[in-house]
Amino acid sequence: IYLYKRRLHSDIVYNMVKDGKFKVEIIHAETMEPFPEHTAPSTGETYVEVEPESEYWIRIQTDSEDLVRAEISVDGKSLGYYLPMNKTSPALDKGVWKFENGKSYDFALKFAKAKVREATNEDAADKPFWTGIVQVDFSEAIYAGEYEMQDQSDLWTGGDVSYVMGISDPDKKKGVKSEQGSSFNVQKSKRRRTKFAKGGLLKTITLRYCSTLGLIYAGILPKPPMWDLHRLRHPAENGNENVPQPNATVDGATGTQSEVFDLS
Question: What is the pTM of this model?
Fold first, then answer.
């Protein structure tokens, strides 16, 4: 499937989405390379072409001189924390977060197959598949004093995601959702922290993600030759049942260190 994508889409854009002073991209947890992005010709929305069962990080950056507060939502639900940052901050790769016994844990997210349900009258007829959504809100960061960080866990348990199919639709493999992955980074972290309240909203960046097949059905990607389309629909029949595995669990301080603040 990877060779198919490279051959078919010579115009794939791998750059992160940048809107003014703010940047967001979805990074493969194993290769640390961004997933390819595509722009919908009719709406200008950004769609990210992802691999089901692969793990990922959300990378955020800003060129803002002033301190800003970044809050991430996945599939309609906040990850439960925010990140203060400005142009001096390094790019931050984030996922599901928890704080226990003076240690900060970042878990990668994972693209999993969405459950399937039949379309109802409330579903838009022109949306035969579901796309997952990663959204980052950048707001003014307003100093709000000091506080003592308490242990935090289960801040995000996934959105209620389902792939909507018509009764006559034979294909049930297009929809993907996000869940917590197994890869993680851990580092020692102080409990005493500076708190920043949310000020005015500066920018919202939204990335819609879906499998290659889903983007083809949505008209974001062109339809391939029939044989390649069959391989996408039935990968196990062509010896492609083995999907890339996530990178091994990391134990020890790795990656870029950053302060994370719960939303309480």
Answer: 0.75
